[in-house]
Amino acid sequence: METLYTDDQIFIPIISDYGFKATFGNEANTLFLRKSLQALIKSDIPIKEVKFDKNTFEGVTKDSRSGIFDLACTDENGNHFIVEMQYGNTPNFVQRMKFYSLHKFNAMVKKGKFDYSILEKIYCVGILANNINPYEHFHNVSNIRNEQGELIDDQMAFITVELDKFILQEVDCQTDLQKLIYTMKTIHTVTQPTQFPQFWNEEWLKVAIDELDSRRMTPDEKASLEILIARNAEAVNAENRRIKQEKEKFVTNLLQQTDFDANKIAMLTDVPVDFVLSVQQQLPTN
Prior knowledge:
By secondary structure, the protein is of the alpha/beta class. The protein has two domains: about 15-215, no CATH class; about 215-285, no CATH class. It has helices spanning about 15-25, 30-40, 95-110, 175-185, 205-210, 220-255, 260-270, 275-280; strands at about 50, 55, 65-70, 70-75, 80-85, 120-130, 140-145, 150-160. The longest helix is centred in the C-terminal third of the chain and has 39 residues, at about 220-255.
């Protein structure tokens, strides 16, 4: 799914850094965030207000680096929400979600709330462009359950949304969750107002869409967007270089330590055969 912003686009992608901060992180008007969170956790109870929290855990890892996520907030009932958006490949994303949630849980206990029956709920939401779960559903809510799938505890919930698995068309979107994910996948592809689905006139979605409209941006906002685009492009290039180097290293080890042919190595490492052959050509000959 292409999310890079170009000059001919009217709307900025929600899943870009700028788009996420302008919509989910809009502190001046939290309507979109509140409705989105309600949809993501599949709750029938409206969220009336949210308070934005600090979104960094300082020096909690072994090497003293901080854990940081995209957004953290608390609703009027004390429920905690952690939201993380990921565009690239994230094979260890579930572990990251557990890290965030358990740190929040430990922080509650340290504040003296040792009556576990009254601990507030923690919802850790991960929105991913790519797939991480071996299931066909684009939206999953995970709690502690037994082997029969019966609920043991729901004080901590892990919600994952895999945008690549969402294939519903405009006419099929009936729930707020479906409308939200459809908007996240398509808003940046719209070039004419006539392409707007009817449900984009709903107030909560219109608030977000207006924030993404590049025609409404001030010169300073456009400058900030261009800086973010440049940084993101460099980050993507750096990540692609890292992934390529890791694959080259993996292929090299297989070439040097096994008698597998190029086709088998390509299959094992999920790369084209030409990639394997190019690495092989660079190896010193005995």
